[in-house]
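Chain A, query sequence.
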Amino acid sequence: MYSSKDDLGRISMILWKDGRSEFFKSIELKIIGGIYMKKRNSLIISILFLLFIGFILSNNIIASGGSAALERAVSGGSGHYFISAVMNGSEVVKMKVGGNAGLSNKSGRLQLDKAVYAPMEEISVSFLAGKDFAENAWIGIVPSSVPHGSEVEADKEDLSYQYIQKRVEGVFLFTAPAVPGTYDMRMFDTDNNGKEIAYVTFTVTGGQTQPMLKLNKTVFSPGEEIHVQFTASGLYDESAWVGVIPSGVPHGEEEVCDKEDLAYIYIRKLPSGTIVFAAPAVPGKYDIRMFDSDNNGKESAYVNFVVTGGEGQPALRIQKTVFSPGEKINVFFTAPVSYAENAWVGIIPSNVPHGDEVVCDGADLAYLYISKQSSGTMVFTAPNTLGYYDLRMFDTDNGGKETASISFIVK
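Chain A, predicted structure.
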């Protein structure tokens, strides 16, 4: 390499994609090959030599499946690539390099629809995969802190994955992790001690979803349905729950509230939804409260409501209709105060005819007296024998009549 006053100038080799200068904005325009000419008859040979070297270099860079800086910069994008020979700022020769930038049977590429996501947002991943990949080659989300290369290590840490199943191209949809941070979408050639072929990094930003509880109204009659809309953080435990708790119970500690709840439903990692409770049978002030775990968790949201009403119509309500043998059954009831002191509610097999208190009294498996209460909660134990049963109410224990019933199953 040398120069003198009669040099023709410097010949440079440049890699382009689809003829767009924007291609270089993220990686800085670089000269990746060059030579000085002393004599004019060296020009053609030098240009051809540079194009040959450029072709080899570009294929090595692009086919490396994400390991080179150039591949990472373009996020694995496919397209038409060119090698240009430029002398003194003017292009003298341009040569096309492969329609998909030299993708081999053992390489692959990944491209995301964007680089920054909110927690739980949908991620669209476009991929190109080698024909020689195993059936169980896969693409997955792995924290960026996990070392690159080993499929075994990445497999232990992946948050979600999908098998490529011999496809050479396609689009997968993933859900962004709930926890903000830096992650990779990584491709592996097999699920059996394979190797990392390509990756692209993305970021999850933004605060967590604020926990929230919302009621369809704030005043209910005993036993009336309460529709509760909720949103919950993706960081909550699988055992996170929402429950009905008297307003007099101190707020904050899940363990304390757990002992006083009248009804509860697990959220099961749902980010949002609607759950339905029955209003307590006893008029008063209550809360719907949310907790991040059933294992000594903490209260994260609550909303108040009131149960009102005087003497009610006879009614029985339960939180669910299927129970296991020996499971507790919470029964909410309302009853006229005109009922006899010995009016009662009992568990009776469903095949026992309805109506006659004397007949049902001879077949009941368990019973409790209402004792002039206009409303309240009774606790029964589900029968040990599998089958169909009713909870039935009677206005007196002395030849009375059936006034309400509700069915359930033990299985």
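The CA atoms of residues 255 and 296 lie 5 Å apart. Confidence is low (pLDDT under 50) at residues 1-42, 57-81, 94-103.
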